[in-house]
Amino acid sequence: MKPILLLLVLVSSTHFCVAQNDTIAAAESQFSIANPFSKAVIKLGGGYFLPQGELNTYFGPAPMFELAVEFPITARKKFEFAAQFIIPDQREDFVYIRTVDTIQAKSTFMVNLMGRFKKDLLATVPSRLTLTIGVGTSVIMTNARNPFFSGQEGEKKYEYVSALLLQPGLSFEHRFSKDIKLLLGIDLQYSPYKIEGAVREDIGNIALIPKVMLTF
C-alpha cells in the first residue's frame, strides 16, 4: 500500500511541477508579447509642410523631416512618439510683441513634438490603412534676440512661439520584408500660433503634411 501511495504522490508532484513550469513559460511569453518596448519600431522619413489659408501668407511650402518611435498596444492599436523638423520658407515677417518692445520677426526653424494614437482601419497580410490622432506642441524659433539673455545656462538666446498641436492623419503602410515597411501618409496640422503677448496678428493655423516613412 505504501509503495502505491508513494507512487501517487510522486506522479502528482511531477504533474504539478510540469504544470507550474508551463504556466510560468506561458506568462513570460504573454509578457514578452504584451511588453510594448520589446516590439518598438523606429520610423524615419520626410515630406512637405504645406501651409493653408492665412498661414500660407506667411509661410511657403517647406521640407519636413520626421523621426518616430512606435509601440504596439494591441494587434490593431499603437502609440507613437514623433518629432517633425521643418525648415521654414517665410514669405512675410510677423509682428512679435515682447515685454520691452515690438519687432518684426522671422522664423528660423520649426519643430512639432507629439504623441500619436493609431488604429488600423483595414489590415491585410502585407498592407494596412491606419488612422492617427496626434496631440502635442508646435514651436517656431525666431530671429528675435531675447533682450534679457545674459549667457547663463538654460536661457534662450532667441525668442520663440509655441502653440497647441492637433494632428489627425491617414496612412497606408506596406510590408516588403520582416523588418522593412514603407508608409505613405498625410497629416492635417492645426496649431493656433496667435498667442497673447507674442504674435500680434493671426498668422493662421492650418497646414497639410504629405510624407513618406521607412520603418526598420
Give the key terms.
216 residues, alpha+beta, Porin, 2 domains, 8-stranded antiparallel barrel, disordered N terminus
Structural class: alpha+beta
N-C termini distance: 65 Å
The neighbouring-strand order within the major sheet is: 1-3-4-8-9-10-11-12
Shape: elongated
Sheet with most strands: 8 strands, antiparallel, barrel
User: Which architecture of the largest domain does the CATH hierarchy give at level 2?
Assistant: Beta Barrel
Helix content: 10-25%
What's the order of the H and E elements? HEHEEEEEEEEEEE
CATH level 1 name of the largest domain:
Mainly Beta
Number of domains: 2
What do the pLDDT scores average to?
79
Quickly count the helices.
2
Measured on Cα atoms, how large is the radius of gyration? Answer: 26 Å
CATH topology type of the largest domain: Porin
Q: What proportion of the residues form beta strands (DSSP E)? A: over 45%
Tell me how many strands there are. 12
Describe the structure.
The chain is of the alpha+beta class. Helices cover 17% and strands 55% of the residues. It contains 2 helices and 12 strands, in the order αβαβββββββββββ. The strands form 3 sheets. An 8-stranded antiparallel beta barrel has the order 1-3-4-8-9-10-11-12. The protein has a two-stranded antiparallel sheet with strand order 2-5. The chain has a two-stranded antiparallel ribbon with strand order 6-7. A hairpin with a 4-residue loop joins strand 6 and strand 7.
In short:
This protein is of the alpha+beta class. Helices cover 17% and strands 55% of the residues.
